[in-house]
Design goal:
By secondary structure, the chain is mainly α. It has helices at 10-34, 41-75, 80-102, 104-108, 112-147, 150-170, 173-188. The longest helix is centred in the last third of the chain and has 36 residues, at 112-147. The chain binds fe (ii) ion (2 copies).
């Protein structure tokens, strides 16, 4: 039952794989917009809920409220700087996504100011989330694996499972996977 209890961060690394696929679609969109080849507005209307629901609410929630909280209590302040930086990056991502969302309608009408706003928040979102995931996968998660005992990992794993059950009711994962597929299709489309 506790298959992951030896490696509590594996679930999070697996979720990063999907988030990175979404980021790749965003990179393609950014490169196209730089060359004035605009992906359809619908691409961004799928991308915003995918990143808000899957990356932020489903994934970041477990990191921030369960794992970071657990570690902060256990390490009594020694990890505050690193955890604070990771939280800050989550928060910056939320801000970029909200600003990007506000410019989608103007982007659809080819308003150049809105296109610029969308592009700047898109580029910032990709850069910050890309670095964030790299640091979690390569620096932070390996450290977490070393710091936590098997008992602690089991406790945290149980908390993850409870939270996932509740979150899946609110945010069906099938919708998130569909949004990602749609994004990949829409960004590949070419218009003359
Ligand atoms: Fe994170
Ligand atoms: Fe993460």
């Amino acid at each position: 039952m506790y298959r992951c209890s030896m490696n509590i961060t594996q679930t999070l690394v697996d979720e990063h794989v999907l988030i990175l696929k979404g980021l790749e679609a965003l990179r393609i969109a950014r490169d196209k917009i730089e060359r004035n080849r605009h992906p359809p507005k619908l691409f961004f209307e799928k991308a915003v809920p995918f990143f808000r629901n899957y990356a932020d609410q489903y994934h970041h929630y477990k990191e921030e409220f369960l794992m970071f909280g657990f570690l902060a209590r256990k390490k009594e302040g020694t990890l505050d700087l690193e955890i604070g930086a990771l939280r800050h990056q989550h928060e910056k991502g939320r801000q970029f996504l909200t600003r990007l969302e506000r410019s989608i309608n103007g982007y659809g009408m080819e308003n150049e100011i809105a296109v610029t706003t969308l592009l700047e928040n898109l580029a910032s979102f990709i850069a910050v989330l890309g670095r964030h995931i790299f640091r979690e996968d390569n620096l932070f998660f390996p450290m977490v694996e070393q710091e936590l005992s098997l008992d602690e990992k089991t406790t945290l794993f149980e908390q993850f499972q409870l939270e996932e059950q509740a979150l899946r009711k609110k945010l069906p994962l099938a919708n998130c996977f569909e949004q990602l597929e749609e994004m990949e299709k829409l960004v590949a489309m070419e218009f003359e």
